[in-house]
Hints:
Chain A has helices spanning about 1-20, 25-30, 35-50, 65-100, 100-115, 120-140, 155-180, 185-190, 195-235, 240-245, 250-285, and strands at about 55, 60-65. By secondary structure, chain A is mainly alpha-helical. In chain A, strands 1-2 form a two-stranded antiparallel sheet. The longest helix of chain B is centred in the middle third of the chain and has 37 residues, at about 200-235. Chain B is flat and about 80 Å long. Classes of the chains: A mainly alpha, B mainly alpha.
Amino acid sequence: MKIAKKLLLQLLLTVLSIILISGLPELIINKNVTAYFEKVKAVFIEMVRLDEMTYFNQGTERLFLNDIWGPYFYSLTILFGALFIAFCMAQILTWGTLMLPSIIRKTVKNFLTFLESLPDLLVFALVQMGIVLIYKKTGILVSNVASLGADDRIYFVPITCLMILPFVYFYKMMILMTEDEMGKQYVETSLAKGMRRLYVLVFHVTRNTSEGIFHFSKSVLWFMISNLLLVEIIFNIHGITHYMYHDFRPEMLAACLILLVIPFFLIFALFEWTIMRYSKRGEAL
Amino acid sequence: MIKKNKFRTGLLIIFGFIASSIIYSVFFDSHVRQVQVIYDENMTPIDAAPFEPSIMFPLGTDPLGYDTAAKVLQGAKFTLISAIVIGILRVLFSFAVGIPLAFYMPEKIRKALDQLLSSFYFIPLTIIAVFILSPILKEQIKMPEMEPYFIYSFAERVVLEIIILTLLVVPLLGSMIGNMMASTLKEDFIEGANVLGASRWRIFNKHVMPHLLPKLVIVWCQQCVQVLIIFTQLGYLKLFFGGTDIDFNPFMADPPKSLSNEWSGLVGNYYTYIQANPAIALGPILMFGVAIYAFQLIAEGFQIHLQTRNVKRTSRDKKMKQKNETIRVQQKFEFLQNRGA
Lengths: 285, 341
């Protein structure tokens, strides 16, 4: 119960800070503090009565909540898909890499440092060019490189673009943390007992690194939401950031961000709760 | 000095960029060469702009024939110096926030504040930055007179952009640095110092700072990387450092221009050529990649230096080793009893 209360408070604060921040452009345009507070108040009222919020689409005024669900779940699919694939691939490859001798691991790590420093825009550009190149050479269109309007949905390209860098981040972090964990005594003991390396890695070490990875995944997600904006603009995807960017009103920004934040917030709360229970049980033993 | 190759390479790249860019502007007045058509010796035109990368144009030219490499060189100082400045400011501000968090707050309140500040994890930086910076950086237009204007002057725009990009991360970074300090304060030697009667200032100055400073250097490198990434993203969204010059001409409007050839402007201007002339579009982004890689190398080299700095090879060790080796070379064989021990 205590945890639920804390989480609720945190969620409220997140929403509040989003509303406060979304009023800032007003302050900058008018250089007037009272105008800022009035704008914040207006945004707040809009948020409370979200079901009456309207926006303009091709000259006609439409209800926001009627139109948003499709693009919203589309964006969530892309984000979650990318996060999930990146995480799973990184985990499997980490297990594989940790079985290799340390010289190869060192090369892998150096290569990952190099990959880490690719700007995300470069990754998107390379994916875009790569698909066109494959099409030119072989005539096989792997996927559409741009979506044509609201009803045309592409999944392969945006998910690939969004997952590459998080995958690299996860992979490097996991290797570093697992190597750190492998030096601990319980690993030596279990290896000495004759357990296989892979078994120890998968069942014991991974459990102990999971908490650190979980905290790290928060900052990965932070980075991915920003990238979602770019991906949706580059590939002309009609997702939630389309509304955010093309409308450009503080109300819209606040509404979209709050909608984006809530599912992730719930999922992280769930994970945190499980990990806490899990590690507490471990302490009792 | 730090003798790690990674560290040196990174530092060399960054300073090389900045120094050559400054030299270029001081001695050559940042003249960007423009070649629109190349002729052979019979004065027949053989090629026209945009040129692909070659020995003459390392990064190619844009459709107007301006040398991209020269533009990149001209813009390097603005982009890199501002990234470094924003990185330093971020670390300094967060440090200032972290001190009271670690020193004057009881454990419980600090944990609670940490929880509150972590709500910032869900507010994506780029999106917020785009929304806040748009009115500052984009040229506006007065409607009846059709007269473009900026709300703020050039200096104000630069200062505001730096301040906004700094303040947006202070909550997260501040709580992170506060936690670092608090975990140092829990070490045994701090208790020892307390027992011996050290004042708070002395503990801060003599015990916490030596531990914290190297970590701050690494945090600074990471922040510089983050700033550079944000610059690319803002550049793609046509928000250039120092302001975006928009042509409001209803007929044949020029594309948005950057006021100085800084890199995010180049990224934003050239990205549209990605399919037709990939070389033009990729050049500036690649340069960002090189700069980011350099900062990563600095951070990694510094980290290795921290881990191995106490394992120093003294000059005596070296002499002994040399001596042993010379003896070994001189003798054709050696008695086991002479070796070692």
